[in-house]
Design brief:
Distance between the termini: 60 Å
Strand order of the largest sheet: 2-12-16-14-13-17
CATH architecture of the largest domain: Beta Barrel
Number of helices: 5
CATH superfamily of the largest domain: Efflux pump adaptor protein, beta barrel domain
Radius of gyration: 61 Å
Shape: elongated
Helix content: 40-55%
Order of helices and strands: HEEEEEEHHHHEEEEEEEEEEEEEEEE
Number of domains: 3
Number of strands: 22
Strand content: 25-35%
Largest sheet: 6 strands, antiparallel, barrel
CATH class of the largest domain: Mainly Beta
CATH topology of the largest domain: Elongation Factor Tu (Ef-tu), domain 3
Length: about 475
């Protein structure tokens, strides 16, 4: 065979292969075109208008923890067991706690006795000093009694008056005798009597002066004694008041008593807290400890948790909660008590009814600045197939229309102001048909007229 013939055969072979490839490509393109056409069956259902959010299932749980530390002595429950509120869950070893209670009782008795002794001692001292104070007070209230001195002065003045009257009478008698020319012997006797009377008057005057002096001296002495009594009273009053107010020993003793009382109450409470009771009714989800383990007491024995970190975790079998995040622009369309429909794809449950129970007032802001608010809903009925942490899709219903003909919005297109759909017929043929759509939720629309349930419409792959 010549080289020219071989070359011709090669060229013919290449042309044949190329034509085959082109034909194959055209055939594949047609099949690909056919494969791109997507259809969806027209169904009857409920059209829900509202907001939508992805979320997560939460089974409410409560952590039960000991408030006091100790070694775990008994565990009365197992995972999966149902308990009622008040059931005994576990008990710590009681020996150390009982010893602590007895020691606290002894310390309280000692502190009380010390307080009573301090009070008795102070009461005795205060009473003694009060007696002294009252005695001095009585002395300060005494008044001067001048009765005896005044009587002496009156007697002295009375006698002085008598002496003066006698002297005056003698002087008058002497003057008359002189006027009558009495004998010298008579006059001499009268003169002698006058001198004796003057001497008696002088003596009487001295007695009066002495009586007045005695009164003045007595007054001065009484005044000095009253001044001293007042000074003594003031000093005793200061001493008494300082003793009453300086009760530091009682204050300290009372503080020690109250401290011991508080420690006793703590010891009693610790012993009581060695018994852990179910704070709520529910199912035991976790028991994070066994006999012999050391339990560290927590500040609160009961707390609602999402991390299941308690010693005993109890779930509420009567509640299933669903969380969802709503954009700040839509949150005003959600309110407490609003109806929801929840889909849980993991277990194939759709349209589960519920109600909104909580709307967070504080927002969450992600790294891109998007603001959302968490909304919590509760399902109306419990299904044991739904587990904590499962993903959920929630519809927050504003309006719902039941038993309507539904198609995807992707199937509807507009032409000359009218709505149309492509309807799949037999033998892979398609018909453009006018329809009348009603309400829509953005992804599905109600078809009022033009198509029936069970037919299929094109959602992608056809020119519209």
């Amino acid at each position: 065979m010549t080289n020219k013939k071989v070359a011709r055969k090669i060229i013919v072979f290449i042309l044949v292969i190329s034509i085959a490839l082109v034909l194959s490509s055209c055939s594949g393109s047609e099949q690909e075109q056919e494969a791109k056409i997507s259809t969806q069956e027209v169904k009857q259902g409920n059209l829900v208008i509202g907001l939508y959010a992805d979320g997560r299932i939460t089974i409410p749980s409560v952590n039960a923890d000991f408030m006091v530390s100790g070694e775990l002595d008994k565990v009365n429950v197992t995972v999966g067991q149902t308990v009622s509120k008040g059931n005994l869950l576990a008990v710590l070893d009681l020996e150390d706690l009982s010893d602590a209670l007895k020691a606290a009782e002894r310390d309280l008795a000692k502190a009380k006795s010390a307080y009573e002794d301090a009070v008795s001692s102070l009461d005795y001292s205060v009473a003694s000093e009060k007696i002294k104070l009252d005695s001095l007070y009585e002395k300060t209230k005494l008044s001067f009694d001048d009765t005896t001195f005044m009587r002496a002065i009156e007697d002295a003045n009375s006698k002085l008056s008598e002496k003066m009257a006698n002297l005056i009478q003698l002087e008058e008698d002497h003057a008359k005798a002189v006027a009558d020319g009495a004998q010298q012997e008579v006059l001499g006797k009268l003169s002698s009597s006058i001198e004796e009377s003057k001497s008696a008057v002088a003596s009487a005057e001295a007695v009066v002066e002495t009586a007045n002096y005695n009164l003045a001296a007595a007054r001065e002495k009484f005044t000095a004694e009253q001044k001293t009594a007042k000074e003594n009273y003031d000093l005793q009053k200061l001493k008494y008041e300082n003793l009453v107010n300086s009760n530091m020993s009682i204050v300290n003793a009372k503080y020690n008593w109250e401290t011991a009382q508080a420690k006793l109450e703590v010891a009693k409470e610790n012993l009581e807290n060695a018994y852990l009771y179910a704070p709520v009714s529910g199912k035991i989800a976790q028991v994070n400890g066994s006999v012999g383990d050391w339990m560290t007491g927590k500040t609160g024995s009961v707390s609602s948790q999402t991390d299941n970190g308690g010693f005993v975790v109890i779930t509420d079998p009567d509640k299933i909660m669903v969380s969802g995040s709503i954009n700040e622009g839509d949150i005003t369309g959600v309110e407490i008590g609003q109806s929801v429909k929840v889909n849980v794809d993991a277990v194939g449950l759709m349209g589960l009814p519920g109600k909104v129970t909580e709307i967070d007032s504080l927002p969450k802001v992600d790294n891109s600045g998007i603001v959302t608010y968490q909304v919590i809903s509760e399902l109306d009925e419990v299904d044991e197939r739904i587990l904590d942490g499962m993903s959920a899709f929630t519809s927050y219903i504003k309006r719902e229309k039941e038993n309507v003909t539904l198609i995807s919005n992707k199937a509807i297109f507009m032409e000359d102001g009218k709505q149309y759909v492509w309807v799949e017929l037999e033998n892979n043929e398609y018909e453009k048909r006018a329809v009348t759509a009603g309400l829509t939720n953005g992804s599905q629309s109600e078809i009022v007229e033009g198509i029936a349930v069970g037919e299929s419409v094109v959602t992608a792959g056809m020119d519209k």
